[in-house]
């Protein structure tokens, strides 16, 4: 599920400030980066399954490994995890309303907080 008009798509911010903000909202970067891309995840383990709110971004300046990159965010995604295949985001997926509602609320908070760190 792609969250359109979340206020995050196209926002640019310095990587270290973005990392701090995402971590404060429960989204982790972990090992999900390469020199040009980052992926922040929030995991929802609920009776209906395991779901991930995923926010991806690409380096517009610098590189992620150097920690001095400027990142441009993409539209957030909500996906369902299927073992052992991975996360699916398709329109045919069914997402619990409470997970969607919590994701939307978090995205609103992030959009507001990003106003203080965006470039």
Describe this structure in words.
With 119 residues, this protein is α+β, with helices and mostly antiparallel strands. It has one domain (12-114): TATA-Binding Protein. The chain has helices at residues 15-24, 97-114, and strands at 12-14, 37-46, 49-61, 70-73, 77-82, 86-88. A hairpin with an 8-residue loop joins strand 3 (49-61) and strand 4. The mean pLDDT is 93.
Key words describing this protein structure:
119 residues; alpha+beta; TATA-Binding Protein; 33% strand
Quick gist of this model?
The chain has 2 helices and 6 strands, in the order βαβββββα. It has 119 residues and is of the alpha+beta class. Strand 2 and strand 3 (49-61) form a beta hairpin.
Helix content: 10-25%
The average pLDDT score comes to: 93
Low-confidence stretches: none
What is the CATH topology descriptor? TATA-Binding Protein
Compressed to H and E, one letter per element, the order equals: EHEEEEEH
C-alpha geometry? globular
Task: Write down the domain tally.
Answer: 1
Residues in β-strands, percent: 25-35%
Total of helices? 2
Briefly note the structural class of the backbone: alpha+beta
Rounded radius of gyration (Å)? 14 Å
Compute the separation of the termini in Å: 27 Å
For the biggest sheet, the summary is: 6 strands, antiparallel
Annotated CATH architecture = 2-Layer Sandwich
CATH class: Alpha Beta
Secondary structure elements and pairings:
Blueprint: E1 12-14, H1 15-24, E2 37-46, E3 49-61, E4 70-73, E5 77-82, E6 86-88, H2 97-114
Antiparallel strand pairs: 1-4, 2-3, 3-4, 3-5, 5-6
Protein name: YugN-like protein
InterPro entries: Uncharacterised_YugN-like, YugN-like_sf
Pfam families: YugN
